[in-house]
């Protein structure tokens, strides 16, 4: 069972929630609300068994009607991501344990072409490399502490889902350490697109260990202010995952 994030220390949760739960420009899109909540669950920002805010409060936060919110929650319930208890003391909670995310990931990536994968990896490399270079110049002690914790989570990951969450959160925290709001927003959106790919890539234990080792090197470079070394390590981490993804794609996303 997953452990809810430490809200007192988790700046990533604050940053990510601000992006994912921002008011919608188009107040009529239940699909957009469902995707944001799905993203929060996927990244572990909403933990398993965590209760969502009351529907009226959540609808107001998204700037949507309660009817639209209920449509979004119905979609998540159908996917097995949340459950709702009615009556006094009830509410909507994130399911725990979550449905088989490996099978869901295969469905999500099955339509991706080799060009799609290459483009995603190119964009991920661009964001990660620049985030790392800027973080090596600008990261605070607090930022570095969060990166260190992120590396520890990656090193201790025992499953594909744990490794994917650790990877996603690390690179979002890396972007936050760059002190660039635009890079942070781009990193969050990219990790959402890349999450199903990471889930499948990290079914391989060797890849999990290799990626964690590179993230350790990257964190050290950021802490010591080694700008170019940090950028190279970030690119190496992205390329390790991209190579594994390309191989899985070639064999029809068969992970066993």
Describe, in plain words, how this protein is organized in 3D.
The protein has 256 residues and is mostly helical. The protein has 2 domains: 11-94, Orthogonal Bundle (Arc Repressor Mutant, subunit A), CATH 1.10.10; 101-250, Four Helix Bundle (Hemerythrin (Met), subunit A), CATH 1.20.120.530. The chain is built from 11 helices and 2 strands. A two-stranded antiparallel sheet has the order 1-2. Residues 1-11 have low confidence and may be disordered.
Question: Tell me, what's the shape?
Answer: globular
Query: Strand order across the biggest sheet?
Result: 1-2
Query: Which CATH top level class of the largest domain fits?
Result: Mainly Alpha
CATH superfamily of the largest domain: GntR ligand-binding domain-like
- Percent in strands: under 5%
Rg calculated over all Cα atoms = 18 Å
Q: Total number of helical segments?
A: 11
- SSE order in H/E notation? HHHHEEHHHHHHH
Number of strands: 2
Q: For the residues shown, what is the average pLDDT?
A: 87
CATH architecture of the largest domain: Up-down Bundle
Largest sheet: 2 strands, antiparallel
Number of domains: 2
Assembly of the depicted chains: single chain
Structural class by helix and strand composition: mainly alpha
Query: What is the terminal-to-terminal distance?
Result: 23 Å
**Share of helical residues:** 55-70%
The low-confidence runs, each spanning 5 or more residues with pLDDT under 50, are 1-11
The CATH topology name of the largest domain reads Four Helix Bundle (Hemerythrin (Met), subunit A)
């Amino acid at each position: 069972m997953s452990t809810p994030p430490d809200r007192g220390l988790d700046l990533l949760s604050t940053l990510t929630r601000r992006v994912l739960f921002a008011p919608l420009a188009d107040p009529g899109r239940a699909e957009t609300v469902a995707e944001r909540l799905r993203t929060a669950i996927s990244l572990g920002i909403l933990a398993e068994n965590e209760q969502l805010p009351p529907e009226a409060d959540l609808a107001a936060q998204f700037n949507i009607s309660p009817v639209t919110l209920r449509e979004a929650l119905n979609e998540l319930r159908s996917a097995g991501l949340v459950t709702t208890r009615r009556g006094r003391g009830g509410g909507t909670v994130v399911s725990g344990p979550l449905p088989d995310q490996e099978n869901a990931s295969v469905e999500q990536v099955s339509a991706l072409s080799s060009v799609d994968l290459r483009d995603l990896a190119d964009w991920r490399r661009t964001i990660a490399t620049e985030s790392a270079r800027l973080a090596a110049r600008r990261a605070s002690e607090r930022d570095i502490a969060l990166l260190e914790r992120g590396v520890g989570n990656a090193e201790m990951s025992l499953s594909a889902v744990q490794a994917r969450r650790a990877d996603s959160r690390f690179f979002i925290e890396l972007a936050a350490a760059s002190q660039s709001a635009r890079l942070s927003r781009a990193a969050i959106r990219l990790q959402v697109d890349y999450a199903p790919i990471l889930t499948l890539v990290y079914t391989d234990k060797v890849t999990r260990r290799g990626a964690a080792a590179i993230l350790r090197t990257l964190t050290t470079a950021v802490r010591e202010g080694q700008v170019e070394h940090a950028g190279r390590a970030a690119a190496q981490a992205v390329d390790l995952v991209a190579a594994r993804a390309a191989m899985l794609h070639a064999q029809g996303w068969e992970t066993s």
